[in-house]
Amino acid sequence: xxxxxxxxxxxxxAAKAIWGAFQSGRPLTYIRTVEEQRxxxxxxxxxxxxxxxxxxxWTWSLTEGLRRDNEAAETGTQAPRQALDFIAAHNGxxxxxxxxFHEPLRESPEVRRxxxxxxxxxxxxxxxxxxTSPVAFIPEEIERSVVFLELRPPDxxxxxxxxxxxxxxxxxxxxxxxxxxxxxxxxxxxARFALRRALAANGLPGVDFxxxxxxxxxxxxxxxGVIEYIAEVAxxxxxGGLEELKKWLLERRELFRMRDNLTNEIVPKxxxxxxxxxxxxxxAIKAIASAFEIPxxxxxxxxxxxxxxxxPEGAFVEACRLLEDMAPAVLWFDEIESGLSTxxxxxxxxxxxxxxLTWMQEKAHGLFVxxxxxxxxxxxxxxxxxxxxxxxxxxxLPREDERIETFKIHLIRRGVDVAGFDLGKLTQFTVGWxxxxxxxxxxxxxxxxxxxxxxxxxxxxxxxxxxxxPLSRTMNEQINHIRAWAFERAVRxxxxxx
Length: 498
Known about the structure:
By secondary structure, the chain is an alpha/beta fold. The chain has 21 helices and 13 strands. The longest helix has 18 residues, at about 205-225.
């Protein structure tokens, strides 16, 4: 008989899903997955908790036929119809795992009819048939009789268990939990290989160890073609000014770390940075990943709409789902106004936008969405209203003290001792400058000094500065328009302006 039991909190997401299907008494389950060995592992776990006594688990493949556990295959069960006949004739409780059975179902009306017979035969007989396949194909004749599950990548519970077996006591439980968190989104095999490579190269968990683990994730998202893993992140100290934004991030960092113990509406879900080009929006996004101590990924909307990865709508949905599986992470949408809009509300871009709005409300709370925008007037009201993002910040041209701080940051980053510099002299020459223009001024001054064979000086910086024409001068009307639009629609990333 089937035991009526309460699931343990330590059970994996996959085990809970399959357990629920079996507990309902449904004899046919179709699981879309490429991880056949993982399904076999979960089936053994479920069988131990579901039945009062151990039951056999039979596995079928077209190449080997039906075999029980590790025994030899049953004679005469290699053909799909023969396998179904064996299941129908089997007495007693059992679980039957049919690998890649979508092809026989697609090609043979006889197999489809026999599977319907098996459904009747197994109903309330403690016999369960599980079909696994990397593609979803359920014939119309049986679609109302089948429980369909899409097996997402393993959760932390599954990963910790497998990694514990792989580490064989060489890694502490606390480190295993940290490693599992870093490997979320990978298959069990990919997680094994990542751990083996990191142990072989480094030996013990640490900064370099986790970096090697994340390399496996970079390879995974690279295969998607539409997601980029951003390895180079920045510290909050690398941002000149934007004190209000920094304060907000440090406060939300603590909430994000406590996300497993908070309700969804309290856990930070994301922010939108809008403002003038070159004023540090992209750098701030990279600093979020560093502050939250989680990986940073960027969705390439150009690739989404290129058609090289299937229909854009499907590619975008799959990318979002993949990143949910890899949470915790920061997801970056760069210049979101050009990739997501309502200009084509009846077409594919409009449907992608509608999906994005709903997804922002329902996504996994370990995924923090960070978006940047320059053409803020193109953003629809649905995008910027409260509830989509936790906050909408406006990044303006830097104030005088922020410009000085930005000069210091760029000089120190390039190994320049600024103790003897009077950077205040530069403020009169850099009114209306963006952060990117300050960086270019530093680079140009260093280049000239290096060519002259001497250290860079504040005079080098001044000589470059007086010749530069800032964006705020060449695009004065556009910048004033951006400021006017954002005045009552966003929170200033800096407390005040010049």
